[in-house]
Amino acid sequence: MTFAFGSEILRTASDGQGVEIVYRDGEGATRTARHAAVVVCAGIGSREIARQLGDRINVYPVKGYSITVNLLDAQSREAAPQLSLLDDAAKIVTSRLGPDRFRVAGTAEFAGENRDIRECRIRPIVEWVNRHFPDVSTRQSVPWAGLRPMTPSMMPKVGPGRRENVFTIPATAISAGRCRPRQPNSWPNPF
C-alpha cells in the first residue's frame, strides 16, 4: 500500500487493468503512479476523482462547525463532561479530548466549498457551553469549520466502481497499490 501525504491528485485514469494517478507531491514535484487497484476516499474531492474513473458519486460538501475549548484551569477541567453527549434538540454533540480539551460540534450548512468560519455559527455553540456548563471557561476556544461529504440520501456510497479495480468510500484520501481487484458482485453488502 502506498500513502502519499500532502499530495494533490491532478488526474486519474483507469484502463480496466490498472489505475494511473498523476499527482503533485508535498514538495511540488509532479509524479505518476500506477496501481492494480485504488480506493477513492477523498471526502468532497471523491466526486471529481470518481468522475475521471468513470463513476458518478453524488457527494456534496456540508460545512460543519465546532469549537475546541482548551480547559486551562482546574475548575474547567473538573466541570467539563468526561463522556460524549448529544443534545438532540440543539443538534449539538460533545466529546472530551483528553484531560484538557473539550470539543463541541453543532450546526451545518450548505455553502459549496466555502471554508470560512462564520461567527454567527460559532456564537450559539459557545453560548450552549456557557449555559450548560457555566464553570467551563470558553475564553480559550478554537473555532473550526470543515466540509463533510454528504449524499442526498445521507447514506454513504461504499462499494465497487464501474471498473473492477476502483472502489469508493468518500472519506479521506487513500491510494491502494497492493489491493487485489475483486469482481464487483463479490463485494459484501455493507448495509
Structure description:
The protein has 191 residues and is of the alpha+beta class. The chain folds into 2 domains: 8-59 and 152-186, FAD/NAD(P)-binding domain; 60-149, D-Amino Acid Oxidase, subunit A, domain 2 (D-Amino Acid Oxidase, Chain A, domain 2, 2-Layer Sandwich). The chain contains 3 helices and 11 strands. A 5-stranded antiparallel sheet has the order 6-7-8-5-9, covered by helices on one side. The chain has a 3-stranded antiparallel sheet with strand order 1-2-3, with no helix packed on it. The protein has a 3-stranded mixed sheet with strand order 4-11-10, covered by helices on one side. Residues 172-191 have low confidence and may be disordered.
Structure summarized in a few sentences:
With 191 residues, the protein is of the alpha+beta class. Helices cover 14% and strands 34% of the residues.
| Biggest sheet architecture | 5 strands, antiparallel
What's the N-to-C terminus distance? Answer: 27 Å
Overall form: elongated
Total strand count, please?
11
The low-confidence runs, each spanning 5 or more residues with pLDDT under 50, are 172-191
Helical residues, percent: 10-25%
* Integer-rounded radius of gyration: 21 Å
Say which CATH homologous superfamily of the largest domain is assigned. Answer: D-Amino Acid Oxidase, subunit A, domain 2
Strand content: 25-35%
What's the SSE pattern?
EEEEHEHEEEHEEE
